[in-house]
Write a structure and sequence with these properties.
Helix content: over 70%
Structural class: mainly alpha
Number of domains: 1
Length: about 90
């Protein structure tokens, strides 16, 4: 496998994570019979974002790098808020 082929595989893996997050959200919403965003959605978002950011850096694509970097901030912030919520804190 060449380096370019390896990075193409990494990019496709990142895209699969990103696509998977919508499948996870859709299934959770169907089960709840209302729109919900499960925790797994944010983990898939971070997995896809990190993988696609690595691919974007390899490709030296500043637009893609900025887009993925900004998204990672949002996904991380959402996980921080979820784990910091009063319902999840002991006490």
């Amino acid at each position: 496998m060449t380096t370019d082929q390896m990075w193409l595989a990494i990019g496709l893996l990142g895209q699969a994570f990103f696509s998977g997050r919508f499948l996870v959200q859709w299934i959770a919403s169907e089960r709840a019979r209302k729109s919900v965003v499960p925790l797994a959605f944010w983990y898939f978002s971070i997995g896809g974002g990190l993988t696609l950011l690595a691919y974007a850096i390899y490709r030296l694509d500043p637009v893609f790098i900025i887009g993925q970097g900004g998204g990672l901030f949002v996904y991380s912030r959402n996980l921080y808020l979820i784990f910091r919520s009063p319902e999840r804190l002991p006490g």
